[in-house]
Amino acid sequence: MQPNSPQLVTTIDELRKKLLEVRRAGRRIGLVPTMGALHEGHLSLVLASRESCDFTVVTIFVNPTQFGPDEDLDSYPRTLDADMRALARCGADLVFAPANSEVYLPGHQTWVEVDTVAKPLEGSCRPTHFRGVTTVVMKLFNMVGAEAAFFGQKDYQQALVIRRMADDLNVPTEIHICPIIREADGLAMSSRNAYLSSIAREQAVVLSKSLRLAEELVDRGELDAGQIIERMREVISAADLAKIQYITLADPQTLEPVEEISGETLAALAVVVEDTRLIDNCLLLPGK
Ligand code: AMP
Fold first, then answer.
1. Cβ 41 under 6 angstroms from ligand 1
2. Which domain covers residue 197, as residue numbers?
3. Which one of 29, 211, 226, 287 is separated from 246 by 20 to 30 angstroms, measured CA to CA?
């Protein structure tokens, strides 16, 4: 039997009309925001939504305002037909895939900006990125009015920034953060992995390898952040196509760097492999 395709809507009007019926039927709405080119990581968010909600809305929108001027907005993969098939298989109910002009009115001049927690790591490499993310996510929250929204730990800082925004602006949507889904060799799934040449794809495994090493070192009692970062750096530098943008061990709530691992600690990194910028992270737990 063919699985049912989710309904595809492209305008805010249609979306609101459809969701009004759903809400009137007393159904709990879950939201999964994405930029499309869907993989198992995205689909795990749909499954998480289906577990706790009655109706799952997936948004597919390559949001121009979160890309910097020299980034990959034009070349970002757009695979709507394949995405619709994947979403049918995992039981999404509705897909909202608006055009840019539906989301941003001419003369748009309102931005949602989170302060301190958006500044380090991704914020320091991509200065206008989070303001684009928080603005579009707030817009999606307002359009969909979901009871719950699902984000991946893959973009750890993004999830933290969105949670901060939701708390600060009294957004009634619950924010759920779901685990990172990885390829068999450990590489975190990402739509941008499609850019990797076969040699770069092989070398990209150094990101997750360095995080596994950090976990092992902490398990063996190494608590000095500088030492751990040095060892992670060695693993990554063994790949000649890899250029490190940052490796940080930081407080998982404030993102302030730590010198000593004394409690749960975020290990996060950004590495350019050949021409593709990849990020990954894990939470280190000393004495576990
Ligand atoms: P994107 O399409 O890259 O904007 O991602 C949409 C959502 O999927 C975000 O909440 C991401 O954190 C999440 N996501 C992306 N990759 C993964 C992954 N490998 N595992 C879990 N969630 C992911």
1. yes
2. 191-282
3. 287
The residues pairing with 44 across neighbouring beta strands, listed in sequence order, are: none
Residue 205: how many CA atoms within 13 Å on its side-chain side? 9
Measured in Å, residue 110 CA sits from the centre of ligand 1 at 25
42 is catalytic: yes
pLDDT one-digit tens code per residue, 48-86: 999 999 999 999 999 999 999 999 999 999 999 999 999
In terms of domains, do 229 and 159 share one?
Answer: no
The CATH number assigned to the domain holding 235 equals 3.30.1300.10
Residue 156 lies in a domain: yes
**Is the C-alpha dihedral spanning 179, 184, 185, 188 positive or negative?**
negative
Residue nearest (by alpha carbon) to ligand 1 atom 13:
152
Cα of 182 vs centre of ligand 1, distance in Å, is 11
* In-domain check, residue 96: yes
Strand 94-96's sheet: what is its strand order? 7-9, 94-96, 55-60, 29-34, 148-152, 174-178
pLDDT per position as a tens digit, 116-144: 999 999 999 999 999 999 999 999 999 99
103/140 same-domain check: yes
Same structural domain, 173 and 204: no
Whether the full predicted model's pTM is greater than 0.70, yes or no, is yes
